[in-house]
Amino acid sequence: EVVISARSVSKIFGSGADKVTALDAVSVDIFQNEFFTMLGPSGCGKTTLLRLIGGFEEASSGKILLEGNELNDLPPYKRPINTVFQSYALFPHLTVRQNITFGLEMQGIDRAKANHRADEMLELVRLAQYGDRVPSQLSGGQQQRIALARALAPAPKVLLLDEPLSALDLKLRKEMQVELKRLQTETGITFVFVTHDQEEALAMSDRIAVMQFGKIQQIGAPREIYDEPTDRFVADFIGDSNFLPGNLVAAANGKHALTLANQHVIELPSVRSGQKTGDVTISIRPERLGLVAENLADQTHLMGSVKSVIYFGTDTTYEIDLGNDQTVKVRTQNGTGAMDDFGRGERVGVHVPADAIR
Ligand code: ADP
Ligand code: MG
C-alpha cells in the first residue's frame, strides 16, 4: 500500500541568474512499512524532497500525497510525519524523558500517559535507565537514539531521516545502521532515509532511489540497483565499476560479439533490447573479474600486467594495466585458497565472464 506519493514534483529556488532547479519533475511511490532511501551526491535534491514531504517547503509544481490525499497545504505539525535531523536538536535543559514527553503534551496528551509512552520509547531504543539524565550526560550515539525515540513517540505514519548518522564515527555509525533497521522493522513505520553514503543505503534499505541533478535516475531494491544499474552514473555511484570501451556487433545466431582491448572477443548470449551496436562503453564490477597467472591464461583472457596491489584483509584489489591507457580493477576474495597472490609487474590474464558485462 502506497503511503507517500510524489507526482511530478518540481522545486525551483530563486529566479533569473540565481535560479536553481532543486527537483525536476520527481515522481515516486513509497510503500507502507518500507525502509526507503534517497541516495545521491551532495546537492542532488535529497533534503529538498524530504522537506517537501515534511511540509517545510512548498513544491513549485506537482503534488505530494499521503495515502492518496493531497498534502500540499497542510502545515508540518498537522502531518502524521516526523523528522529526525542530523543535529539531534534535543532541548539541553530538559531531561531525556521530558524531551520525549514535550511534543506529546503539546498534542494534548496528559502527563501520565506521555510519561508512560516516553518510557516505552526509551525501552525501544534501549535507553530505559537514562530517562532522568540531561542530554549532555549522554554520548553522541545515545543522543541520536533519544532523538529517534522522540520522533517515534507520537507513532507517525512516516519518519523522515535526513543523514541522521553522518555525525557519528564509523563504528558507531555501523551500530546505528543496525539499530535503525531494527526500529523500522519493530515499529512498522515507513522510514524515508536520506544519505550520500552508498554502502549505508545498500545495507539498510528495502528500496533505494538514486538521485542526480534533481531527478531520480533509478528506483529499486539494493541488489537490483547494484546488479542492473540503468546508466553509467548509477553504476559509478553505487559500488565500484570498471568502464571500458568496446565494440559490439550483432552475430547471425542472435548473439552479440563484444571486442575489448587487445582484440579480445567475448560472445554475449543476450543484450538489453534496444541496445545500440558499434562503439559502446561496458561496465563491470571488480569482484566479477578473475585473475590467472600468465602461463595458465588462454585466448579467453585479457592480458595485462599488475600495476598496483591493495590488500584490504578480506579482499585484495589489483589494478591491471591492459595497455593502450586502459586499466581494470580486479577484486579477489582472500581466504578462499583459490586465488594466487600476484605481485607488481607480474603478467596476468583477466577472466571476464560474459554475464558480468553491462
Ligand atoms: P542535497 O540534500 O541532496 O545535498 P539539497 O536538496 O539540499 O541537496 O539542495 C538541492 C539544490 O537546491 C542545491 O543546489 C542547493 O544549493 C539548492 N537549494 C536548497 N535549498 C535552497 C534554498 N533554500 N535556497 C536556494 N537554493 C537552495
Ligand atoms: Mg541534504
Automatic annotation (TrEMBL):
Catalytic activity as recorded in UniProt: ATP + H2O + polyamine-[polyamine-binding protein]Side 1 = ADP + phosphate + polyamineSide 2 + [polyamine-binding protein]Side 1
Entry-linked InterPro entries: AAA+_ATPase, ABC_SmlMolc_Importer, ABC_transporter-like_ATP-bd, ABC_transporter-like_CS, Mo/tungstate-bd_C_term_dom, P-loop_NTPase, PotA-like, Transp-assoc_OB_typ2
**GO molecular function, one example?**
ATP binding
Question: What SUPFAM superfamilies does the annotation carry?
Answer: MOP-like, P-loop containing nucleoside triphosphate hydrolases
- Residue limits of the ABC transporter domain? 4-238
The subunit structure is: The complex is composed of two ATP-binding proteins (PotA), two transmembrane proteins (PotB and PotC) and a solute-binding protein (PotD).
Q: Which SMART domains match?
A: AAA
* Family indicated by similarity: Belongs to the ABC transporter superfamily. Spermidine/putrescine importer (TC 3.A.1.11.1) family.
Q: What does this protein do?
A: Part of the ABC transporter complex PotABCD involved in spermidine/putrescine import. Responsible for energy coupling to the transport system.
| UniProtKB keywords | ATP-binding, Cell membrane, Membrane, Nucleotide-binding, Translocase, Transport
* Taxonomy, superkingdom: Bacteria
Indicate what this protein is called per its UniProt record: Spermidine/putrescine import ATP-binding protein PotA
Any keyword Nucleotide-binding? Answer: yes
EC number per UniProt: 7.6.2.11
* Gene name linked to the record: potA
